[in-house]
Design goal:
It comes from Parnassius apollo (Apollo butterfly). Homodimer. Its EC number is 3.2.1.21. Keywords: Glycoprotein, Glycosidase, Hydrolase, Signal. It is a single chain. The chain has 17 helices and 13 strands. It is of the alpha/beta class. The strands form three sheets. It has an eight-stranded parallel beta barrel, surrounded by six helices. A three-stranded mixed beta sheet has the order 6-8-9. The chain has a two-stranded antiparallel sheet with strand order 12-13. Helix 8 runs parallel beside helix 10 and helix 15 packs parallel to helix 16. It is globular and about 60 Å long. It binds beta-D-glucopyranose. Beta-D-glucopyranose (BGC) binds next to loops.
Length: 494
């Protein structure tokens, strides 16, 4: 076991040889890891069984069905809580090297606090981890994928600074129970999404406070992440020998034109949307990106706030957070075009005004089944190269990439998406980007947040009308399985 674990950690930490040239057949390095991903709320169901507490998404879907496209909830979803063995059987069928899933905080700590640990939650994730390891599939675990215990939301959720301490308590519980077997940890999935869309958009908890609470959320998430990373380094890493990172989403931001104002706007957008979390952790100087600091301080002043809406880290916090990630988990799906904004400042705080740009997409780029997702593989290569240049080429694990399509098992377009994005990723690796693994989103169809069950990303179809939530492989599953087994892009589709 020891030896196997050190190989996994080495794959993520030790620099590889450069990928040379552009061979005819695209083959990834021998230790490159291919896997698939999901998140607890999106697939588990069993929302209130065996002592699980309520999460903000349980609460939101139950009290605000009108905010979910098909008025659904994930009370049952794909029922993965009861289908653990079937899911692992399919992962084995796929031949993947790793499976990325998340732990539901309220399944482990029903009220969010570590004085009351739900033994059934420990049993369930322990069984899943054991089943994966028994089949040589590396568990990669996200500690927080959007489903905060509702009891902590009632205290202000991510806007209350005390949450960083509570997250640390939760982290201790998961490291204590699973750290002997889990060697790759992600603290948070997409803080941009859950802070921006949860506190300033339509996601749970539904706070309508863009440009204000969203920044408090980001601030406390970064503190919680920093504390957790240091906790692992101090108390666990010498015993458990794993790695800890964070998952950030980065849609490529391409200038809409060659005009200098648009070039500057695109860089501002990259810094607001990605640098917000990447700069404090991955830049050599740490702290918020200077452009965010300057713009938000200035606009807050002009809006007559006595202090900036973007909170300030203490010097100790800057040091705590800087360098607090062994690798970068990257979620990438699409690309946006960015143009300069009109420069107007409205009295109402908003992230959009602070960022000061106009975001669009080229209508000619092929569309997916999600309004925000268009197929732009070259944006993936650019995003990876930007990370290489800006943050000193950190090891990158692609933790999400995928496409939503109309329900069909002959998902030829998904295979095309995979082939084109994987080729772009290979090109980025040839440019020198240090990419260690790739995770397709999603393994099976999932509950797609405010889009409910209307968007399907899975390699496996889930029949939500059948009691067993029957899973059926799509064409893309057979393509992905060839890829995972050979580490080469398949040249045939069937
Ligand atoms: C999230 C997933 C989601 C996917 C597709 C990511 O933002 O991490 O939970 O299903 O995108 O929308």
């Amino acid at each position: 076991m020891e030896i196997k674990y050190s190989v996994i950690v080495a794959v993520i930490l030790v620099p590889w040889l450069k990928v040379e040239g552009a061979p005819q057949r695209i083959c990834f390095p021998k230790h490159f890891m291919f896997g698939v991903g999901t998140a607890a709320y999106q697939i588990e169901g069993a929302w209130n069984v065996s002592g699980k507490g309520e999460s903000i998404w349980d609460h939101y879907t139950h009290y605000h069905p009108e905010r979910i496209f098909d008025h659904s909830s994930a009370d049952v979803a794909a029922d993965s809580y009861h289908q653990l063995r079937e899911d692992v059987r399919l992962l084995v069928e796929l031949g993947v090297q790793h499976y990325r899933f998340s732990i539901s905080w309220p399944r482990i700590l029903p009220m969010g606090l570590s004085n009351d640990v739900n033994e059934d939650g420990i049993r369930y994730y322990g069984a899943l981890i054991d089943e994966l390891l028994a089949h040589n599939i590396e568990p990669m675990v996200t500690m927080y994928h959007f489903d905060l215990p509702q009891s902590l939301q009632d205290l202000g959720g991510w806007t209350n600074p005390i949450i960083a301490d509570y997250f640390l308590d939760y982290a201790r519980v998961v490291f204590d129970h699973f750290g002997d077997r889990v060697k790759v940890w992600f603290t948070f999935n997409e803080p941009l999404s859950f802070c921006h869309d949860g506190y300033g958009g339509l996601d749970a908890p539904g706070a309508n406070s863009s440009g204000f609470e969203a920044y408090l959320c980001g601030h406390n998430v970064l503190r919680a992440h920093g504390y957790t990373y240091r906790l692992y380094q101090q108390n666990y890493s010498h015993l458990q020998r794993g790695v800890v990172g964070i998952v950030l989403d980065f849609a490529w931001c391409e200038p809409a034109t060659t005009y200098e104002g648009d070039q500057r706007a695109a860089e501002a957008a990259r810094q607001f949307r990605f640098g917000w979390f990447a700069h404090p952790i991955f830049s050599s100087e740490g702290d918020y990106p200077p452009i965010m600091r300057e713009r938000i301080d200035e606009i807050s002043r002009r809006q007559h706030f006595p202090r900036s809406r973007l909170p300030t880290f203490t010097a100790e916090e800057v040091t705590l957070i800087r360098g607090s990630s062994d690798f970068l988990g990257l979620n990438h799906y699409t690309t946006y075009l960015i143009a300069q904004g009109n420069g107007k400042i409205y009295p109402q705080p908003s992230f959009k005004t602070d960022m000061g740009v106009v975001v669009t997409q080229n209508q000619e780029w092929p569309k997916a089944n999600s309004s925000w997702l268009r197929v732009v593989p070259w944006g993936f290569r650019r995003a990876l190269n930007y990370i290489r240049q800006k943050y000193n080429n950190p090891p990158v694990l692609v933790t999400e990439n995928g496409i939503s399509l109309e329900r069909s098992n002959r998902d030829v377009r998904r295979v095309g998406y995979l082939a084109s994005y994987l080729s772009a990723m290979y090109a980025a690796m040839s440019d020198g980007c240090d990419v260690r693994g790739y995770t397709y989103w999603s393994f099976i169809d999932t509950f797609e947040w405010t889009s409910g069950f209307s968007e399907r990303f899975g390699l496996y179809d889930v029949d939500y009308s059948s009691a067993s939530r029957k899973r059926t492989p799509r064409l893309s599953a057979s393509y992905f399985s060839k890829l995972a087994r050979t580490r080469c892009l398949p040249d045939s589709w069937n």
